[in-house]
Amino acid sequence: MDQQITIDAVRAEFARVFKLSDSLRVVRAPGRVNLIGEHTDYNDGFVLPMAIEPQVWAVCRAREDGIVRIASTLFPGQFAQWSLNDKIVPGNPKWANYCRGVTAGLLATGIPLSGFDALLINTLPMGGGLSSSAAIEVATACCFLAVGGLDIDMQRLAAICQWAEHQYAGMPCGIMDQTAVISSKAGHAMLLDCRDLSKDFFPIDAHDVRVVIINSEVKHELTGSKYADRRRECAEGVAKFKTRYGDGIRALRDVNLDQVDESKSMLGDVVYHRCRHVVSENRRTQEAADLLGKKQYDPVGRLMLQSHESLRRDYQVSCEELDCLVEETMKVKGVYGARMTGGGFGGCIVALVQPRAIEAVIDTVGPIYKDRFNRVPTAFVTSAAAGASIME
């Protein structure tokens, strides 16, 4: 369905799928794009995400039999069902494991839950690095809140959704995605400290600058070994830094670049480069947030490019398609900066662009990319959106 769908449209879609149209509740959970700060969240570092306009809608209707039954417009004809009275285990269809995990996480807190029928209506690309999985998790949680008249601390809810992704989808993600989906502020980027979960918000004036996202249409699968390998390599680095510098080193957040360089021989080549990315990315992210708040977009753009180069060379999570999109986007006059965003190995790039340059970016980059890779990239422009909410 189109990004600009209305509440009436999603209610009508629920009625078509479930043959029910009364007592409906509607919730929304946006996707997110990370402007800078990649692979730092699970290292207790800093990230600078914002919620985006594409989102997951969920229309739900309470049930009295303890059954949760969910369908998705992305998978027509598939229904996932489980009971609140039984042990909830991962199963098929696999897309519903995000929802199963949230259910189990909420039940484990002792919160009294009611069953429901729900339809997920997704305007986010799956596997694009825009937190479609976190949006599904949060939308599911909001359905439970809506039908049960429940209230819960939002950061606690983010932690439950993160746990669900770890335990039921096999993805050892950091806390950024769920926090951004839940807590973002319209018109602002959020600097999140992933250690203490403190948040600072920096305005993004849509009259001055717009965010353009281009999907490479290369689907990533982060539940495999590559993501886990990066986490393991970072943990290996932390263990070695502790040996050298003491127990005050709890995460790569606690290491500076001089220490990384001093420890190169001890770390080994691969772990050295992984650590160098994370430590330098933390510094870039904090600088970018400060500069964004001052509307100094040129240096923010340079930091974005440095981030992409670090992800490409040190962390090795980019790919030829993402590199091409960044390179060609940067050739367009009026683009401040561009970089891959998300876990990598495919997905999207994000660019900070002058409003007058948007059309040129889309018209120029798409044909070049298609000629080179025989794929048509999907591009869209977004403002910074608000976090998840119960609409009615």
What can you tell me about this protein's structure?
The chain is of the alpha+beta class. It folds into two domains: 7-203 and 386-390, 2-Layer Sandwich (Ribosomal Protein S5, domain 2), CATH 3.30.230; 210-382, GHMP kinase, C-terminal domain (Alpha-Beta Plaits, 2-Layer Sandwich). Helix content is 42%, strand content 22%. The strands form two sheets. Strands 1, 2, 3, 4, 5, 6, 7 and 12 form an eight-stranded mixed sheet that branches. Strands 9-10-8-11 form a four-stranded antiparallel sheet. A hairpin with a 5-residue loop joins strand 6 and strand 7. Helix 2 (97-108) crosses helix 3 and helix 4 packs across helix 5. The relative contact order is 0.17. The mean pLDDT is 94.
Layout: helices, strands, pairs:
Layout: H1 7-18, E1 25-36, E2 46-63, E3 67-72, E4 79-83, H2 97-108, E5 115-122, H3 132-148, H4 154-169, H5 176-183, E6 188-193, E7 199-203, E8 210-215, H6 225-245, H7 257-262, H8 264-267, H9 269-293, H10 297-313, H11 320-330, E9 335-341, E10 348-353, H12 358-373, E11 378-382, E12 389-390
Parallel strand pairs: 3-5
Antiparallel strand pairs: 1-2, 1-12, 2-5, 2-6, 3-4, 6-7, 8-10, 8-11, 9-10
Helix pairs in contact: 2-3, 2-4, 3-4, 3-5, 4-5, 6-9, 9-10, 11-12
